[in-house]
Design goal:
The protein has a single domain, classed as Vaccinia Virus protein VP39 (Rossmann fold), CATH 3.40.50. Helix content is 35%, strand content 21%. A 7-stranded mixed β-sheet has the order 3-2-1-4-5-7-6, with helices on both faces. Helix 3 links the parallel strand 4 and strand 5. Bound molecules: S-adenosylmethionine.
Length: 232
């Protein structure tokens, strides 16, 4: 049975009983398209900033020369520890890419995180980020923010980035149903949870499919952002 932490982000092998099976599979598919389009420098360096279990490392390792997973203290899998002040030990203008998947909502100082990203990125570098619009509370170890599309664009623009791609994944209706599922899931006896979440997935998918893309780009469960730092 998935724990709350298993439900946080994108793993590539989700069981048919996983309560996030539909949405995490879709996010992964969309994100891989964004990676394929934007990560083109095979001799490049990529920083996974808030790496967790690095669910995209296998996919991305062959696309870049160097992949560095950085995380706060406590993550033994990380290649590099983020300093207690939230910064990385990297020099200015060193990274071609930063990926940040389901991290921004956990970060206490969003301006510091984005400015640090801009600092380590090269002038032509890119950040590829996902974060949540409509999603349940999930501390890891903290959980501070949910974004509207307009608010998320604003924090990027206010912190030295120009957005080159912005996309919502998981429509309002689908996320409404997912929250309904979340509301019941943890209250159900354990032996019913798997069957309940498996039965919910086709309905979440159906609710997602009937929504228009331009609405989902404004109001979504996940946002995918690609942005470049404004550097002279
Ligand atoms: C939901 S997990 C996502 C992990 C991974 N990126 C993924 O996609 O599975 C959130 C991650 O953000 C990290 N994190 C929390 N606070 C952070 C901070 N201030 N700076 C950088 N990373 C942070 C956590 O340690 C955790 O690995």
């Amino acid at each position: 049975m998935p724990t709350n932490n298993d439900m946080l982000s994108g793993s590539n092998k989700l069981s048919i009983f996983h309560p996030r099976k539909y949405i995490l599979t879709k996010v992964r598919k969309e994100l891989q398209k964004v990676f394929d389009k934007n990560i083109t420098k095979t001799d490049g360096m990529l920083l996974d900033y808030g790496c967790g279990d690095m669910p995209y490392r296998n996919y991305l390792s062959s696309k870049v020369e160097k992949y560095i997973g950085a995380d706060i203290e406590g993550n033994d899998k990380a290649d590099m520890l983020i300093l207690p002040n939230g910064r990385t030990p990297l020099a200015d203008n060193t990274s071609d890419y930063v990926i940040s998947t389901s991290v921004l909502e956990h970060v206490p100082d969003v301006a510091l995180y984005l400015n640090e990203t801009a600092r380590v990125l090269k002038k032509e570098g890119l950040i590829i980020l996902t974060t949540h619009g409509i999603w349940m509370y999930h501390p890891h170890p903290t959980d501070f923010w949910r974004w509207t599309s307009m608010g998320l664009k604003k924090v990027f623009e206010d912190n030295n980035f120009e957005i080159v791609h912005f996309q919502g994944v998981g429509s309002r209706a689908a996320m409404g149903l997912l929250l309904f599922q979340d509301g019941l899931y943890f209250k159900l006896p354990v032996f019913i949870r798997n069957i309940f979440s498996m039965l919910m997935q086709p309905f979440i998918c159906l609710f997602d499919k009937v929504s228009k893309k331009n609405t989902t780009d404004k109001d979504a469960g996940f946002y995918i952002v690609v942005a470049k730092p404004k550097k002279l």
